[in-house]
Design brief:
Elements: H1 2-11, H2 26-40, E1 50-53, H3 56-62, H4 64-67, E2 73-78, H5 82-90, E3 94-99, H6 115-118, E4 121-126, H7 139-152, E5 155-159, E6 185-190, H8 191-194, E7 203-207, H9 209-222, H10 228-238, H11 244-265, E8 278-282, H12 289-300, E9 305-306, E10 317-321, H13 326-338
Parallel strand pairs: 2-3, 2-4, 4-5, 5-6
Antiparallel strand pairs: 1-7, 6-7, 8-10, 9-10
Keywords: Aminotransferase, Transferase
Pfam family, one: Aminotran_1_2
Family: Belongs to the class-I pyridoxal-phosphate-dependent aminotransferase family.
Length: 343
Amino acid sequence: MFVVNAMKEFVEDPRNHRYPPYEGTYSFRKTISEWFLKRFNVSLDPDKEVMALIGSKEGIAHIPFSFVDEGDYTLVPNPSYPVYNVATILAGGTPYFMPINEENNFLPEFEKIPVEILEKTKILFLNYPNNPTGAVANLEFFEKAVYYAKKYDFLICHDMAYSEMTYDNYVSPSLLQIDGAKEVSVEFHSLSKMFNMTGWRVGFVVGSSEAIKALGIIKTNVDSGLFVAIQQASEVALRDDSNFIAKMNNIYVRRRDLLVNGLKSLGSDIKPPKGSFYLWVKTPKDFDASSFTERLILETNIVVTPGSGYGSEGNKYVRFAITVSEDRIKEAIERMKSKSIQF
């Protein structure tokens, strides 16, 4: 509510009703750099290494146009957020899918990628905490990613929209904490998840000054920047010292545990995820993602996302979200029990 109250004040300022700077106001970029230093102990130059986005999705969708041409590859986790794949295709490139599954802890195995693909790769997409799996990564994994990026001269684009949605004493690290990572990496962050500002469309990208400059060239030709009042309200959010995020995560933990225990009572072997607000749940053995999603809709009026929408590796999974109240989660479990659904 404190962000909404701030926004009411800023939206009434007539000075804000004009075109904003393409890269974001200096004040917003400086606030981002201060938050990043406090959160990750990484210093950023607000003039060259920080840029405002109209939601992190916008930046992720545009960055392939800065680096990818016909004949180039991007490395895309399978399953993953569909924008990585679609943006690559729209830019004229070819996605190379890296399977992530329980066997590899939902972390791509770079050593299994053919050298001829790596030599033609322009972008590696990563996303931890992960959508849709809820998986998390450590600094050792990011060190390996940076090694490959330097060896094969490609850019790492780390989608960190769920950086603050973490549980069970896990704290997500930034890729940029790795020595030399800033030379070959950018990281996308979103206030949508951090402060429940989904519809506001506000995020930012940090990291390689060269990559941010290239993305800025695309953006200046396709958008006109982020409404200044939203940037000002976002500064208020990033400077918040009320433990808003910790309180919100406590709510998510209760919802997560309630849903995990409920699904286990129906036979699922789901493990509590340490990040994001999703549960990646195996379908019953006689169902694939689409058929089980259809059954839930027709028999229980419960809507889940079929895992196949995130890639072929998701064909035996569905994604549950813990973005509804505990009462709704309890009701969902009872509806599945009433229809004898077993995992």
